[in-house]
Amino acid sequence: MNQPGKRWPAFVVLIAAAMLWLAAWVFIEMAGDTPKGEFAAWDAPTIQFFRSKPGALQGSPAVVTLAQGITFLGGTFWLAAVSVGIVIWLARQRRWRAFSVLAAAIPLAQVCSSLLKLHFARVRPDIVTPLAEVSSASFPSGHAFMSAMIYVSLGVLLARRMTSPWSQAAIVAAAFFLSFLIGLSRIYLGVHYPTDVLAGWAAGTIGAIICSALLVFLERGRPAAA
């Protein structure tokens, strides 16, 4: 965020720093709870809140279809396609610094997500009948992690092309909101505990803030709409 941001860069930095601290705190809390189960008292009831009782669907088939469609937007296939599209777009615009950051950051985030799953090796919830196929460990949610990382970073890239601070903020907020919906869909489908999703959002937010800071710093001399 460039030109209009001259009036509020300190505010943006403060918000980003606060979000980074909060995300780190949330991830540490969720990771520390995984072997102890301190949040189990609300983990299971939260899943059941989305699904009326174990084994029963909550809402109409249309709601289930909607949740499955939203979760698809955080899946490996779709996010890989989005990532390839981003780096091709950056290459065509000869934005080699941003290209290098994202070409390295996105695969690194995926590796981190996989390593965290292997480390914690948390079994998927069996509280309700799952409505999606899963094969990896549960903690943290890869959908929440990677959607926050990729969509927020993309949101920052797009926001830099806007001239209005409100438009910039709306784009980044929309990216966070999409990641939020994707995480909720994983809980609704019964394939993640809420703590998995919170940890995924937190880790993805950390990655997105670091990646976005690098993007803005390395492209600071470039016209915002270029």
What does this structure look like?
The protein has one domain. By secondary structure, it is mainly α. 69% of the residues lie in helices and 0% in strands. The chain has helices spanning 9-33, 40-50, 61-72, 76-92, 96-120, 142-159, 165-188, 194-218. Helix 1 (9-33) runs antiparallel to helix 8 and helix 3 packs across helix 7. Residues 1-8 have low confidence and may be disordered. The radius of gyration is 18 Å and the shape is globular. The longest helix has 25 residues, at 9-33. It contains 8 helices and no strands.
Please outline the helices and strands.
Layout: H1 9-33, H2 40-50, H3 61-72, H4 76-92, H5 96-120, H6 142-159, H7 165-188, H8 194-218
What's this model, at a glance?
By secondary structure, the chain is mainly α. 69% of the residues lie in helices and 0% in strands. Helix 5 (96-120) packs antiparallel against helix 8 and helix 6 runs antiparallel to helix 7.
Provide the structure class: mainly alpha
How large is the count of helical segments?
Answer: 8
- In what range is the share of β-strand residues? under 5%
The number of domains is 1
List how many beta strands DSSP finds. Answer: 0
Q: Which of globular, elongated, flat, extended, rod-shaped describes the shape? A: globular
Identify the notable features of this structure and list them briefly.
226 residues, mainly alpha, 8 helices
